[in-house]
């Protein structure tokens, strides 16, 4: 299966690294990227073909759109229409599949997906949505590309991709913010910088691993940490008092609203 990338930035690199680890051949991956330093870096690191012009990148089974949402329309309207069997896989936040099909001169085989940066270490999670004209085989190809870097979840309603964006697309940033906060709390309590970082990171990593491997409800796992009359009870109560649930809900709502806004703005162009 041949895979092309329009845009060779962070997410493209995360996906390419994972695909090569999963046994994709470097000869089957091509990238179009305008920045010469970036082109040289990708070609050297991965042994793939990286070119300035998009034309050759188009002759592929899956064409991944990995540029910023704000430049997608200009990029696509300058391209010839891909072959009907080419599955276009957009990872651009907010931009709707129907608009992509329109900008590609009514190329209807469009899958919209939202991966996340843990893809870099093979631990990504991506939501996918396919326009009705995408064949089962094209869907399977798009899924194979994303499965190379983690798990996948299909949604039947495109609006839910904005929810996926708010939860798992942007979500790593919320978790990193929590790690920053836990680390600085550790320093405020007298730990040195190294110890605070190691304890904060180990706690988030270990807790996520336990939740995945144990399979119990998160609330049940939390209860197992919380001894009656103990320390956690006080700590969790303080988190609740300070509105941590409301803060997370507000973060997700704001991110989803921005995804919709991007879709409205960019689709109206
Ligand atoms: N980062 C994340 O966590 C996630 C990002 N996404 C989505 O992935 C997409 C890419 O994001 P990300 O990788 O972070 O962004 P980057 O800015 O790292 O990558 C975009 C790349 O596209 C290049 N580019 C710009 N114009 C063109 C063009 N005309 N043709 C080909 N390439 C071009 C840019 O080059 P230059 O820098 O020279 O302009 C840059 O290297 C976005 O649409 C984003 O919404 C999705 C999920 C998660
Ligand atoms: O912040 C963004 O717009 C992109 C989409 C999800 C993660 N990063």
TrEMBL record:
<dbReference type="GO" id="GO:0005737">
    <property type="term" value="C:cytoplasm"/>
</dbReference>
<dbReference type="Pfam" id="PF14748">
    <property type="entry name" value="P5CR_dimer"/>
</dbReference>
<dbReference type="InterPro" id="IPR053790">
    <property type="entry name" value="P5CR-like_CS"/>
</dbReference>
<keyword id="KW-0641">Proline biosynthesis</keyword>
<dbReference type="InterPro" id="IPR029036">
    <property type="entry name" value="P5CR_dimer"/>
</dbReference>
<dbReference type="InterPro" id="IPR028939">
    <property type="entry name" value="P5C_Rdtase_cat_N"/>
</dbReference>
<comment type="function">
    <text>Catalyzes the reduction of 1-pyrroline-5-carboxylate (PCA) to L-proline.</text>
</comment>
<comment type="similarity">
    <text>Belongs to the pyrroline-5-carboxylate reductase family.</text>
</comment>
<dbReference type="Pfam" id="PF03807">
    <property type="entry name" value="F420_oxidored"/>
</dbReference>
<dbReference type="InterPro" id="IPR008927">
    <property type="entry name" value="6-PGluconate_DH-like_C_sf"/>
</dbReference>
<keyword id="KW-0963">Cytoplasm</keyword>
<dbReference type="InterPro" id="IPR000304">
    <property type="entry name" value="Pyrroline-COOH_reductase"/>
</dbReference>
<feature type="binding site">
    <location>
        <begin position="6"/>
        <end position="11"/>
    </location>
    <ligand>
        <name>NADP(+)</name>
    </ligand>
</feature>
<protein>
    <recommendedName>
        <fullName>Pyrroline-5-carboxylate reductase</fullName>
        <ecNumber>1.5.1.2</ecNumber>
    </recommendedName>
</protein>
<feature type="domain" description="Pyrroline-5-carboxylate reductase catalytic N-terminal">
    <location>
        <begin position="2"/>
        <end position="94"/>
    </location>
</feature>
<keyword id="KW-0560">Oxidoreductase</keyword>
<feature type="binding site">
    <location>
        <begin position="66"/>
        <end position="69"/>
    </location>
    <ligand>
        <name>NADP(+)</name>
    </ligand>
</feature>
<dbReference type="GO" id="GO:0055129">
    <property type="term" value="P:L-proline biosynthetic process"/>
</dbReference>
<comment type="pathway">
    <text>Amino-acid biosynthesis; L-proline biosynthesis; L-proline from L-glutamate 5-semialdehyde: step 1/1.</text>
</comment>
<feature type="domain" description="Pyrroline-5-carboxylate reductase dimerisation">
    <location>
        <begin position="158"/>
        <end position="262"/>
    </location>
</feature>
<dbReference type="GO" id="GO:0004735">
    <property type="term" value="F:pyrroline-5-carboxylate reductase activity"/>
</dbReference>
<dbReference type="InterPro" id="IPR036291">
    <property type="entry name" value="NAD(P)-bd_dom_sf"/>
</dbReference>
<keyword id="KW-0028">Amino-acid biosynthesis</keyword>
<keyword id="KW-0521">NADP</keyword>
